[in-house]
Amino acid sequence: MRALIQRVLKASVMVNNKLVSRIDTGLLIFLGIKNDDSSKDVEYLANKITNLRIFANETSDNFEKSLIESKKEILVVSQFTLYAMTKKGRRPSFIESAKSDYALAKYEEFINELKKSDLEIQEGIFGAKMHVKIINDGPVTLMLDSRL
What we know:
Elements: E1 2-15, E2 18-23, E3 26-32, H1 39-51, E4 55-57, E5 60-65, H2 67-70, E6 73-78, H3 100-115, E7 121-123, E8 131-145
Parallel strand pairs: 3-6, 6-7
Antiparallel strand pairs: 1-2, 1-3, 1-8, 4-5
């Protein structure tokens, strides 16, 4: 399971020109799910993301506080393209991305795992064509993988 996380001042998702979700200061999580991701991958990534110290505290701009400590918001967007294979040819292959039914189940499991943190969780619409608007803070962008 992969997550591309971005620290944001604001982020929102629109589908068919309608606002679906939005957050202020927090993390935007693009979540990619692989064919053989398990509940162990879900738990690892949710725990890592909510406890990763990437927010400043009141006295320093350094990475001192986690999402949980700073009580920031989360916006999760499904992103099957995080498993794109681009080595051969000119068109990406998504053979490693999980099939839709399996990916949806793991996506929902991930959301439920994040909700245990008691943080404000927003999400895009799984499988929809989304327009994501981001004001990146820093910019801070990190790639996390449950298997690396």
